[in-house]
Specification:
By secondary structure, this protein is mainly α. The protein has 25 helices and ten strands. The protein has a four-stranded antiparallel beta sheet. A hairpin with a 5-residue loop joins β8 and β9. α14 runs parallel beside α24 and α20 runs antiparallel to α24. The N and C termini lie far apart (70 Å).
Length: 838
């Protein structure tokens, strides 16, 4: 059974005004061309005119009743007197009708109650229940089609009041809300927290994909279908507004948070006793400093931005379409603590128990692996920077007059790096293990190990796969324990899904489960970030020391940062598990491709004799040379991590988009499109792995039919993303390369190709050096250090003659073996620096 507004004609969506003199406006509203609404700069004159139009529309269509001071409820009415709904927010993100007030609507119940007549001129409901409900603005007049559930009872009998109001909203009101700007977007906020129950994914499914609960859709989408996308764009602006509002709030709060967390961090068991005073003093100094919000740059005066020292928010990288998430990276000395403060302040601001990842698909991340890069003069070569690049260089400079210590440290660095690379590979594999369970994981692991002939290399890969499986299982167990704790203390979180317009048949249980998982994962992420902060403070405490043992410990701790960040990031939403994949996505894919487009535009201007211009419009010469393609230099191990990690994201999107939600049909073209984003990155990473395997093996991989199909999908994704489908995914059904992907077999084929190809590639790059055992404190240097902490002896990658701890000269045979590797590394660095000079 469909709802009345599924069958009602558009002209019946809102009452027709009474007859008026000839000079009056037409009885039926005249549709406006709003489908291509474009938002410009706030200072644009056209934008001021648009704001004036919105103000006029709001003044004409919506009147807010006065509410008691300090309450969070309101009534909006149209000129005809009909209510949109009296709404009150609740802790779980759902907006429920205030039971102490009436506005002509009957609360939802298991049996629809007769509607009380009201002054509004809407059609009266039938005196007795009828198979087809009548069109009405009353919430109780919106019974849902009887979706069978256990026991034969309907999933629910009525929409929640806020969704009922949205279902009956005239197109003029929807237009006014979609154009709302500069007023904290109060109406957009009411729609998101009310009708969509504080869940961005519900809003996106409805407004972008037309998947409304109860298999119905609002009146305004009949009259003006484009208004759904315009409302979604209004929610995007709301998301930007709230994020901008929270930044200075969090920055001011950091002083207070540092004060309360200092003692716990300085006294942590991972900090050596002798180092605790120095770490405590540094944290206390940070807590005493004023935390002034960031001062933005002033283009008129040329003044540069003055960032907040604790946390500074960077502009989001990537796309900004109606389907895009908002990933915010941060800088500063206390980004690890700022993530928790942001999430707490967000829940206060929005009056919800849900995290920003659920309400806005917005995720704030602490400082991880992204620290910019070194560009060549021609802007065609990019080498990513590492976090402690300067410190690593200066610490080795301190050993230049101690040849034996310097040589020993170079060997230790190689071993530390090998151990760190192995751990990063396991984290990348964990990203696959999280989305492959049971027999699928077993089959995938077997395909990899069966493809390796060398027994030593086969055994090493088997160990890595086992470790990844264990990490994935522990991730899920930790998440479930955390959900249980949160639900027991947060009533709003516990009540998710109990009162909702989304029934089980609409995927309501899935939405609620995902929201709880998001909150729990963020809670674990916040706690693990404290470990990252403590590690970075220990590194800072050793930075000034010139003692070889302190330098050894410093460099060992630096090599462990990536592992600690990855351990925390495992619980962060929508992130990679490894450093290589993160750098590849942000620096190589997003940054590199953006720079290449700029290079191409500059080359065209230079070819025509036109001068290049900077952001101020000032000419600054012509492009150096004709090369435009950007090359990104990363280590072979980093490219392997990028390859593996992106396979995990292909599987993630297969599970998320490749399955139906309740009774909603799967959108197979969109699922293929989303999977294609990460397939494109898998293929890009593979193209940089030529040196990771023999020439024969690489040629064999390039000839695989799976690669040919995956490369085509990745190319098609990039093309579609740049076209109209990037803004309106429903157009994918008409996109030449996606409209034929309409069955489960199509996306199953993408998944199968990805797994088969990635297993073959991993088996090909697997070699047979002695496996690297993760670094562990197996021995300690006896001599005292400035920090007072013993220095773990690095675990050798190759057999090294036994020598007493700290006896560098006894390791001369091993030094000879390492000399060739060190020389080759130095030559490679020199060559890279020369290319950067070009």
């Amino acid at each position: 059974m469909n709802l009345a507004h599924d069958t009602a004609e558009p002209t019946k969506a809102s009452p027709t005004p009474a007859p008026a003199p000839a000079t009056a406006t037409p009885a039926a509203p005249v549709p406006l061309a709003v489908g291509r609404l474009v938002v410009g700069h706030a200072e644009d004159r056209a934008e001021h005119e648009a704001d004036t139009m919105a103000d006029s529309a709001l003044a004409r269509l919506v009147r807010r009743s006065e509410t008691a001071s300090g309450t969070d409820s309101s009534t909006a009415r149209l000129d005809d007197g009909s209510p949109i709904g009296r709404l009150a927010r609740t802790g779980g993100g759902v907006i429920r009708r205030d039971p102490t007030k009436t506005d002509g609507a009957t609360p939802a119940s298991s049996t629809p109650a007769p509607t009380t007549p009201t002054p509004e001129p809407s059609p009266a409901p039938a005196p007795t229940p009828a198979p087809t409900p009548v069109a009405s603005r009353s919430a109780a007049a919106h019974p849902v089609a009887a979706h069978p559930v256990e026991g034969g009872a309907p999933a629910r009998t009525a929409y929640q009041p806020a969704m009922a109001a949205l279902m009956d909203m005239p197109w003029e009101t929807a237009l006014a809300i979609s154009m709302e700007r500069g007023r904290d977007s109060r109406l957009c906020k009411d729609v998101l927290l009310g009708a969509f129950e504080g869940d961005w994914f519900k809003a996106k499914d409805c407004l972008v994909f037309g998947r409304w609960p109860g298999r119905s859709r609002p009146h305004f989408t009949h009259a003006q279908p484009e208004l759904a996308l315009d409302l979604m764009k209004g929610l995007l602006r709301l998301r930007d507004d709230i994020h901008a509002k929270l930044q200075p709030v969090v920055q001011r709060k950091m002083k207070e948070r540092l004060g309360s967390a200092t003692e716990a961090m300085a006294g942590h068991t991972s900090v050596p006793e002798a180092a605790k005073p120095k770490v405590r003093a540094a944290l206390e100094a940070q807590a005493r400093a004023e935390s002034v919000p960031t001062v933005p740059a002033n283009k008129e005066t040329g003044a540069k931005a003055v960032p907040n020292q604790n946390v500074d928010y960077f502009d989001a990288a990537g796309a900004t379409s109606v389907t895009s998430d908002l990933d915010i990276s941060t800088g500063g000395i206390n980004t690890e603590l700022a993530v928790q403060v942001y999430n707490e302040e967000f829940r206060k601001e929005m009056g919800t128990s849900l995290d920003p990842g659920t309400v806005f698909d917005l995720n704030v991340y602490a400082k991880d692996f992204i620290f910019g890069g070194h560009w060549s003069k021609k802007d065609t070569l990019l080498r990513p920077k590492s976090e402690h690049e300067a410190l690593e260089s200066s610490s080795m400079e301190k050993l230049k007059d101690r040849p034996a210590d310097l040589a020993a440290q170079k060997i230790a660095d190689q071993q530390n790096q090998a151990a760190a690379d192995r751990k990063q590979d396991v984290f990348a594999l964990t990203h696959i293990a999280r989305f492959l369970v049971g027999g699928e994981w077993t089959a995938y692991a077997k395909q990899i190990t069966d493809g390796i002939a060398d027994p030593v290399a086969q055994d090493e890969q088997a160990k890595r796969l086992q470790e990844a499986r264990a990490k994935a299982d522990e991730f899920e167990a930790t998440l479930q324990r955390t959900i249980g704790k949160l639900v027991s203390t947060d009533a709003g979180l516990a009540s998710l899904g109990t009162t909702s317009s989304w029934s089980k048949a609409d995927g309501g249980d899935e939405y609620a489960s995902n929201a709880k998982r998001m909150r729990a994962a963020n809670a674990v992420y916040e706690q693990k970030l404290v470990q990252v902060k403590i590690l970075r403070e220990q590194i800072a405490a050793l930075a000034a020391s010139t003692e070889p043992t302190d330098i050894a410990r410093l460099r060992l701790l630096i090599s462990q940062v990536a592992e600690t960040v990855s351990e925390a990031s495992l619980y962060a939403n929508e992130v990679y598990g490894s450093a290589g994949a993160t750098v590849h996505a942000v620096v190589a894919v997003q940054g590199g491709r953006k720079r290449q487009k700029i290079n191409e535009a500059e080359a065209k201007r230079t070819a025509t004799g036109a001068p290049l211009v900077n952001e101020k419009g000032e000419a600054h010469g012509s492009r150096l040379g004709t090369e435009t393609e950007v090359t990104v230099e990363m280590s072979t191990e980093a490219w392997k991590q990028a390859f593996t990690d992106n396979v995990g994201d292909v599987l993630k999107d297969y599970l998320h988009y490749g399955h139906s939600h309740g009774t909603q049909a799967t959108n197979y073209p969109y699922a293929a499109f989303k999977m294609g984003k990460y397939v494109d990155r898998v293929v890009d990473a593979f193209d940089h792995l030529k040196g990771a395997m023999s020439a024969e093996a690489y040629e064999r991989m390039t000839a695989l039919p799976e690669l040919k199909r995956l490369r085509a999908l990745g190319t098609n994704h990039v093309k579609a993303k740049a076209g109209p489908s990037g803004d309106d995914p429903k157009l994918l059904a008409e996109e030449e390369n996606f409209k034929s992907l309409t069955t489960r077999a199509d996306i199953d084929s993408i998944k199968s190709d990805t797994l088969s190809f990635s297993a073959a590639v991993r088996a090909s790059w697997a070699t047979s050096p002695a496996p690297v055992t993760p670094a562990a404190p197996t021995a300690a240097v006896a001599s005292p250090t400035a920090s007072g902490a013993p220095v773990p002896a690095p675990v050798p990658q190759h057999p090294v003659p036994a020598a007493p701890p700290g006896d560098v000269h006894a390791q001369v045979p091993a030094l000879a073996e390492a000399t060739g590797t060190i020389a080759a590394t130095a030559a490679a660095v020199t060559a890279a620096e020369k290319r950067l000079e070009e």
